[in-house]
């Protein structure tokens, strides 16, 4: 496969002034959110794709999870390692989440399991979460942090008791293909999942039942975001951006945002702005106001990641 350094995950730091991104070439980069100026990097962290990234609450530390099966900790400003990387899985790690205090990490892997780790030591916490058939592609925590949510290649969304590692209820089934993205609402009552089947599905966490019908995009959903106002935004494999209100009604028209797949979606803390990152090496900023269509922010940030690298072998797309 030929890769051009596209961003796999983006996050905001320094009071939303800074964008931190990681890419399929194992690098981390930093930009000013408003100007797009490079603030640091590229820093080579892994030799293979980074599929998961979180920041600690103080923004000093970036934690990454890679196709090489390892998890690493890095100084955000310098890219220097903070201790040794540890092997989390014998297969690629496809997603990463953390508790609010960042003492605990949760990894999801191609090996069909999710696992809990103490962040600074890499010590495993409890037994692996087993239940999905094939890869676990997304992982999240509920706001109370008592439940872990996973989504898998088998088309299901599953909830787990965080402490015991036991399933919490029955699998949420509705997608007709792999589930590739997850978002938990800030109040924890509703979940949203995005699938290869080109739909977003909403779930009531308490009952496990669907909330309304599927939200159809017509293209595999790579990223989904459920904001505090109940609105849902989805980024798709064809580069389009979709937006619905809390009732499931589409807000505005489909936006041809990127020239290739959108792999990551994030929001500023006040949710007045959304950011998308795509295979086309761009980060785009969008104004978000409840009940109104997304519109481009005053400026956009174009990222040209160089050098262009040739990657050989399979990747967990």
Concise synopsis of the structure shown:
This protein is mainly beta. The chain contains no helices and 31 strands.
Which key features would you list for this structure?
317 residues; mainly beta; 5-stranded antiparallel beta sheet; 4-stranded antiparallel beta sheet; 0% helix; disordered C terminus
Q: Give the termini distance in whole angstroms.
A: 11 Å
Helix content: under 10%
Mean pLDDT: 92
- Describe the global form: globular
Radius of gyration: 18 Å
Description:
The chain is mainly β and 317 residues long. 0% of the residues lie in helices and 47% in strands. The strands form 8 sheets. Strands 26, 27, 28, 29 and 30 form a 5-stranded antiparallel sheet that branches. It has a 4-stranded antiparallel sheet with strand order 2-3-4-5, with no helix packed on it. Strand 27 and strand 28 form a beta hairpin. The chain is globular. It starts with a strand and ends in a 7-residue tail after the last strand.
